[in-house]
Design a protein that fits this description.
The complex is a heterodimer of chains A (about 120) and B (about 110). Helices cover about 0% and strands about 55% of the residues of chain A. Chain A has about 120 residues and is mainly beta. In chain A, a hairpin with an 8-residue loop joins strand 9 and strand 10. Chain B is mainly β. Classes of the chains: A mainly beta (about 120), B mainly beta (about 110). The interface between A and B is medium-sized, with 26 and 27 residues.
Chain lengths: ~120, ~110
């Protein structure tokens, strides 16, 4: 069984500040891990993915995440927040052996960026 | 390359009716998954189709069904609509374990 927990349903940062969105996962098999972003009235856009290669993963828009197996974590970071980063962010897991057809999502974290 | 296309974008139905949503995947993608997004339950997996066969299924009642055609396009059907079916329905197509999402169909049940 797999599950994802995102700590904090709302995170607020000032423009230029560090963004840290937390994600912990549970998986009985090697996982694939993903971060998606959703802007209002839109679908999900893939930010980055971990698929068992490098543990530090770089994504689009300056975001990165580090896979830490010992902590079962996959936190998302960005050194300097921009107003355009305000959106909802979802962490998701799928089983490597599941052929990628089923994602289990966390509850999401809404990021606000203050000027 | 065109992205995942979902039609229609918005739908309003009344209780008891049925509805069909359509999803055209990215060219070359053979897997299509469907998700329901609501404020209370978040994003929940409905089902996945690969080469016209249902390969994975979530925990939804039998009123929710789907199918996939030989060109990989997929449809999702909900029969006997309930108020609680009001949601954003997202379709994703995938290649090599990475899912790409469409903009969704927002269904309102009155």
């Amino acid at each position: 069984a797999q599950s994802v927990t995102q700590l904090g349903s709302h995170v607020s940062v000032s423009e230029g500040a560090l963004v840290l969105l937390r994600c912990n996962y549970s998986s009985s098999v090697p996982p694939y891990l993903f971060w998606y972003v959703q802007y209002p009235n839109q679908g999900l856009q893939l930010l980055l993915k971990y698929t068992s290669a490098a543990t530090l993963v770089k994504g689009i828009n300056g975001f990165e995440a580090e896979f830490k197996k010992s902590e079962t974590s996959f936190h998302l970071t960005k050194p300097s927040a921009h107003m355009s980063d305000a959106a909802e962010y979802f962490c998701a897991v799928s089983a490597v052996l599941d052929q990628g057809g089923k994602l289990i999502f966390g509850q999401g974290t809404e990021l606000s960026v203050k000027p | 390359k065109a992205g995942v296309t979902q039609t229609p974008r918005y739908l309003i139905k009344t209780r008891g009716q049925q509805v069909t949503l359509s999803c055209s995947p990215i060219s070359g993608h053979r897997s299509v998954s469907w998700y329901q997004q609501t404020p209370g339950q978040g994003l929940q997996f409905l089902f996945e189709y690969f080469s016209e066969t249902q390969r994975n299924k979530g925990n939804f009642p039998g009123r929710f069904s789907g199918r996939q055609f030989s060109n990989s396009r997929s449809e999702m059907n909900v029969s006997t609509l309930e108020l609680g079916d009001s949601a954003l329905y997202l379709c994703a197509s995938s290649l090599s374990n990475i899912q790409y999402f469409g903009a969704g169909t927002r269904l309102s049940v009155l």
